[in-house]
Amino acid sequence: MIRRLASASSISLLLSVACNGDDSATGATETGSSSSSSDGSTSDTTSTTTSPPASVPIRYFLRIDDELPPPLVLEMDKDKALEIFGETAARNLELLEVDSTPMLINALTEIQVSCGTFWQNYSEKPKHDCSKTELGQTYGEDWQTSAEFGLVRMLTMTPINAVVKGTSLEPMANTLASINDPDLKFSKVLADTLGIDQTQPFISIDVLVAALKKTLLYSHPQVENDEGLLKVTLWDAVNDMQTLSVAYGPDGEHPGILYGDSDGFETFSNALTDRFLMKVVAESNLRWVDGIDLSVGGGDMFVTDAESILTFDFLDPEKLVITGIFGQEKKIDGKDNPDYGKEPTIDMRFRLGEHMPEILPCTDAPDCYENYPSGWIDVEGNPKGVGPVGSDTIWNLKPWLLEYIVGYSALLAYGYDPPLHYDKCLLSYDMKTCAAGIWVGPPSGDELLPPDSFPFEPGPVGWSIFKAFDVPTPTPQFLWELLIEIAEVAIHDTNGDKIKDIEPGDANPLFALKGVGLGLSAQDMIDQIRPKMQEQADEVANVILGKYWKNNGHLDFYYRRPPTGGMPYLYFVAESDLRPDENNPDTLAAYTYTKPGFFSCAEMTDGCKVSSTEIMDVADTSHEKYLLPEGESTLYVEDDTGKAYEVGFYVPSGPNPTEIIATVSAL
Predict the structure, then answer these.
(1) How many helices (H) and strands (E) does the chain have?
(2) What proportions of the chain, in percent to the nearest 5, are helix, strand and coil?
(3) Is residue 609 assigned to a domain?
(4) What is the per-residue pLDDT for 351?
(5) What is the share, in percent, of the chain residues with pLDDT greater than 70?
(6) 3-state SS string for 393-439
(7) 366 preceded by a cis bond (ω within 30 of 0)
(8) Which helix (DSSP H) or strand (DSSP E) does residue 481 occupy?
(9) Percent of the chain at pLDDT exceeding 90
(10) Rounded Cα–Cα distance for residues 193 and 548 (Å)
(11) 496: pLDDT confidence band, cut at 50, 70 and 90?
(12) Residues 6+ apart with CB under 8 A from 117
């Protein structure tokens, strides 16, 4: 006679072992127990899961345990989190979706001022000096001819300090300068045309960030949105974000958003400090049941009626507690934290690359009126253009290239919200026709137009036409394409002497940025982590206890009370009761029963089937169930190999039979 004894401590043991990285635990049992027989006598018994039924009947005690398992409590630092989740699951568990906007603003602002801030003054000389800042010093001793300084020049280019030498605007600028009229000063003319102050950069940081999100970021295979949202996983977090340089590094033909670690530089974030701790409390939905493997003997297993084996409430601040994020704690070891309230930062490297051949403006009107990036939508939500026009124009380039990004930025700045519409006659000799002027978009009717001898064909909004007496001016084109030319010259001719300091194809700036603000506070991070983890609660449960079934016996039936309470039933195992394969315990056993259920005759025909999947007031419909009567009864069952058995049951009298006797005989 064998008696199985177990309790909620079985589940506690399973949870404990599973959370310590060992999935080989079995259900807890008590051995050497004294059991009572049906006639009141006692005998010493030994619990086992491997005593096979002999030719003589063998009796088993099946017991109900109504004690609920205690909550699962996990406390994880970075190392423990990685130990519990493992690399694969940690890579898949998303913690944050970081809006890159603040981070990009912080990074680009640091680059913009890395050679000083004198460019912000009303002066034709920006007086750059990259040796004065920590970032600027990384450009090298010859910073004046570095690709990094070339980009700084572009970012700090304003109407007052813009150098148009070497561009198609140079003749017009020189001609207006010779008139010596303050109203015709080219910096003022340029600022008025663009609708900005003379000390304001042609392309603002905000606009450049918006362009980067639509170009460099969105074109990366790991970025699935055009809003600049970057996924950060548990794997990234516990590795101090170093892995982001791989996740968002080179991928296929994309050169990467972040530049990989090398030459002593390591991507690093201080977001999770050495004091980081995550405490998680979960409710277990596993229930221990006692049953019989007909071909082996008594056993137990864990079953669940819930969709998930663990229930998490990550939104509850008592069931998910996160501490040790940078800037989170007012005091550390009893002392004021000088970093309290500060946002976490990241050290990262950022690189842009340019196209080798020269990019030509699209000037063939009217075809070029349709020259826009593929899929361009105007501010009112209407499709615009037909995509790239011509084979060597800007929108044929890959969206991660420098020229494309500059062009896209200029298009956002002057062709989107609102699109630029400007016309101004700068000088007229006869007050009938315009000798010098600028027209961007259709004429308003309020300004003089060029004489009939001038080939004047107004285009759509953004299409620019320049006239300066009889000197050469840019061929009519979209204004943003003209700005690409000015930016290209500024990047390659860093001192404005019309001699290229950086050869085409070599303007590939690489910036090693330290302490860039993530744009998230500690509380912001926690507020994001909670719903993100809640969305993935089932995945978290499967990682922690996903293979709980490896500890299950290969039972054919078990004795349990329905989840809602009431009288206990015999349950024949269903496909939802997960059991390990007897020959390969790392895989699930196939469900091979041909006659599941309980029968009152040895022939086990449908006519003598006494169990049912549907029982009044019992929600479960996947298991064959049978309510045993008081006293003695006999049922017939078949195991998953097709072998038949006779099982005699004894149910003691009373309203709540929590322990019964099953006597198994092989037929």
Answers:
(1) 14, 27
(2) 25, 25, 50
(3) no
(4) 93
(5) 92
(6) CHHHCCCCEHHHHHHHHHHHHHHCCCECCEEEEEECCCCCCCCEEEE
(7) yes
(8) helix 479-492
(9) 84
(10) 70
(11) confident
(12) none
Across the range 616-622, mean pLDDT stands at: 94
pLDDT of 205-245, one tens digit each?
999 999 999 999 999 999 999 999 999 999 999 999 999 99
Please state the length of the chain.
667
CB 572 within 8 A of CB 604: no
Looking at residue 114, the DSSP 8-state letter turns out to be: B
Domain assignment present for residue 221? The answer is no
CA 499, distance to chain mean position in Å, is 46
3-class DSSP state for residue 255? coil
Q: Report in angstroms the alpha-carbon separations of 459 from 320, 421, 440.
A: 60, 11, 8
CB 433 within 8 A of CB 453: no
Q: Is the pLDDT of residue 494 over 90?
A: no
Per-residue pLDDT at 546: 82
Query: How many CB atoms sit inside 10 A of residue 51's CB?
Result: 14
For residue 280, give the nearest of 85, 523, 488 by alpha carbon: 85
Confidence tier at 15 by pLDDT (50, 70, 90):
low
Instruction: Say yes or no to pLDDT of 16 above 90.
Output: no
631 DSSP 8-state letter: E
Element (H, E) at 529: helix 522-535
Burial (0-12, 13-18, 19+ Cβ within 10 Å), 430: exposed
| Half-sphere exposure in the Cβ direction for 94 (13 Å, CA) | 12
Range of the domain at 433: 116-155+158-200+353-508
State residue 14's pLDDT score. Answer: 56
CB 556 within 8 A of CB 639: yes
Separation of alpha carbons 123 and 158, rounded Å: 10
Give the chain's domain count: 1
Residue in this structure with the two tokens 């051995």, named with its chain if needed: 31
Q: Locate 174 and state its tokens.
A: 């020189």
263-291 residue pLDDT tens: 999 999 999 999 999 999 999 999 999 99
CA distance 488 to 472: 20
Cα end-to-end distance, the chain, whole Å: 20
Closest among 42, 10, 72 to 544, alpha carbons compared? 72
pLDDT of residue 19: 54
Q: Give mean pLDDT, residues 69-89.
A: 95
Q: What is the DSSP string of 123-189?
A: -S-----GGGSHHHHTT-TTGGGSHHHHHHHHHT--TTT---TTSTTHHHHHHHHHHT-GGG-HHHH
Strand residues in 545-588 grouped as ranges (E): 557-560, 569-572
What is the spatial distance between Cα 81 and Cα 280, in angstroms, rounded to a whole number? Answer: 11
48 burial (CB, 10 Å; 0-12 / 13-18 / 19+) is middle
Q: Is residue 194 included in any domain, yes or no?
A: yes
Residue found by looking up tokens 């280019």 in the block: 157
User: Each residue of 142-163: pLDDT tens digit?
Assistant: 999 999 999 999 999 999 999 9
Position 471 in a domain? yes
Structure tokens at 595: 């006659």
Residues 164/166/168/169 CA torsion (nearest 10 deg): 20
570 vs 182: CA distance, rounded Å = 99
Mean pLDDT score of the chain, rounded to an integer?
91
459 touches 422 (CB < 8 A): no
Give the angle 579-635-47 at the CA atoms, nearest 5°.
50
334-341 LR contacts (CB < 8 Å, sep 24+): 341/521
Residue 49 pLDDT class (50, 70, 90 cuts): very low
